[in-house]
Design goal:
single chain; 6 strands; 34% helix
Length: 234
């Protein structure tokens, strides 16, 4: 299995637990050839999880590197993966991946978007966050219209920001939920599905090794929830 069943003794959210083979089959059948993830180090864990499905391995040191933007290379047996922390840090009219090319493709087949704990609430007001999120929604709407570049991302996933389990930071969790609510309000009407990672991981302090990262079983369970959204679970 993709995760450690003995650690995840409490069923959280997904209806189906994906093996690596089932996940790869899903990506093949759905013709998912380019996967892009926007977020902070917590969302970056999703990048590690997804690449591990295709045979890549990472040690703990590599997972703590502060590389906040990189492009992976796909091949015949593996999609292209890319990650960036830039989209969630600046006001911009299009995601940072827009304008890059993957064998002629102008947009990814799967886009996982998440804001980040270090992005709010300390560094970004609710008003500015709403404005930035609305720019992303406008981009999606503009490119769904006729006579445009037709950059229609088929699979758009909103990954809610996760909670703190550090006592001195727990007061920020109420504000984090407000940011999650804003993102849900703005992005779902333009075709995003969401994974309520706050709700999934709020009772699972045991899955965090430092009080706010969930690298390993917790992150993989979130990644499994994402697979449930984009794959046929019947």
């Amino acid at each position: 299995k993709f995760y450690n069943e003995t650690v995840l003794h409490q069923k959280l959210e997904p209806d189906k637990v994906f093996t690596k083979d089932a996940a790869r089959e899903c990506f093949f059948c759905q013709k998912i050839n380019w996967i892009h993830i926007d977020g902070d180090s917590l969302a970056r864990d999703v990048y590690y999880d997804l690449t591990e499905l295709f045979g890549m391995s990472w040690n703990n040191k590599e997972k703590t590197l502060e590389d906040m933007s990189f492009q992976g290379k796909g091949n015949d047996n593996m999609p292209r993966f890319s990650f960036s922390g830039d989209t969630i840090k600046h006001l911009q009219k299009s995601p940072n991946w827009y304008g890059t090319s993957n064998n002629g493709r102008v947009c990814p087949d799967l886009w996982v978007y998440s804001s980040g704990l270090w992005d709010h609430p300390a560094n970004t007001s609710l008003e500015r966050y709403r404005e930035r999120t609305q720019l992303l929604a406008d981009f999606v709407n503009d490119n769904m219209a006729e006579n445009t570049m037709n950059c229609q991302v088929r699979n758009k996933i909103l990954r809610h920001t996760t909670p703190y389990h550090i006592n001195e930071y727990k007061g920020r969790n109420q504000m984090t939920m407000k940011y999650n609510a804003i993102a849900t309000e703005i992005l779902l009407p333009v075709g995003f599905q969401y994974v309520n990672t706050f709700e999934i991981l709020e009772p699972r302090k045991d899955l965090s090794h430092d009080g706010f990262h969930y690298t390993g079983p917790g992150s993989k369970w979130v990644t499994n929830a994402i697979l449930n959204l984009i794959c046929d679970v019947d």
